[in-house]
Design a protein that fits this description.
It comes from Agathobacter ruminis. It is built from 6 helices and 15 strands. The chain is of the alpha/beta class. The chain is elongated.
């Protein structure tokens, strides 16, 4: 499963620790892999953001020296980064118009409630999956395909095939085991030969599943428990 990078930028170390703890709890509950880094200095964060390259940022609006809004403007305007998912955090609630200019994805009021944080993370992961791409090479050319368009991956004779929802099939030389750990939330390995995208799952029983293109795929016995677990987690999320 792909690991997502989360940055927390708040001058209050206690807030950082509490937020990190809640995110870790979320990751265990949803079986999502996160790498988390914390900054108590906004200037230092701006100097290191490119190197760390986070997917999600929890940003304190009132952080001293370089405010959260200024940090967000730096990210959007100077770095031209519109993809970073920014969640502003604050004890105050009166920043709506100022925040609108830097396109935050949500605003969380301190102390941050676990339920609201979980909803924010659910939304972030869905956005990351929709906006992310699978990269592969074929005949010395590089290609990308949106994960949202992939119905399933399968392998035959050292070739990986990519079945898209529109019926197109792509291929390249490789192995499924080399990609399974990097796939976003919603993809699950059901056998040595198949990895499916659960958004295109039509129905399933204990030992096989049917995709929306009508393809029936066997679920290996060793994969069945994990398959059920992932389904339940996504339904709860």
């Amino acid at each position: 499963m792909k690991m997502y990078k989360i940055a927390i930028c708040d001058d209050d170390a206690i807030i950082c620790e509490e937020l990190e703890s809640k995110i870790i709890e979320y990751s265990f509950d949803r079986t999502v892999s996160f790498e988390i880094q914390k900054w108590n200095d906004s200037v230092l964060f701006c100097n290191q953001i490119v190197e760390y390259n986070p997917d999600i940022l929890f940003l304190d609006i009132e952080i001293p020296n370089f405010s959260g809004v200024e940090v967000a403007k730096f990210i959007r305007n100077e770095l031209n980064n519109e993809n970073l998912i920014i969640f502003f955090i604050s004890y105050k609630k009166n920043y709506a118009m100022e925040l609108f200019q830097v396109h935050p994805h949500d605003f969380l009021v301190k102390p941050i409630e676990t339920q609201k944080l979980n909803r924010a993370l659910d939304k972030a992961l869905k956005l990351l999956q929709l906006n992310s791409y699978f990269h592969y090479s074929y005949k010395k050319k590089n290609y990308v395909v949106p994960y949202s368009e992939v119905m399933y991956f399968y392998s035959q004779n050292k070739t990986v095939f990519i079945k898209k929802y529109d019926g197109e099939t792509l291929s390249y030389l490789g192995k499924l085991k080399d990609i399974v750990l990097d796939l976003p939330l919603g993809f699950v390995c059901i056998s040595k030969s198949y990895i499916i995208n659960l958004r295109y799952l039509k129905s399933w029983k204990s030992d096989f599943c049917t995709m929306k293109d009508g393809m029936e795929l066997s679920i290996a016995q060793s994969k069945r428990q994990n398959f059920k677990t992932v389904l339940l987690q996504l339904e709860r999320g």
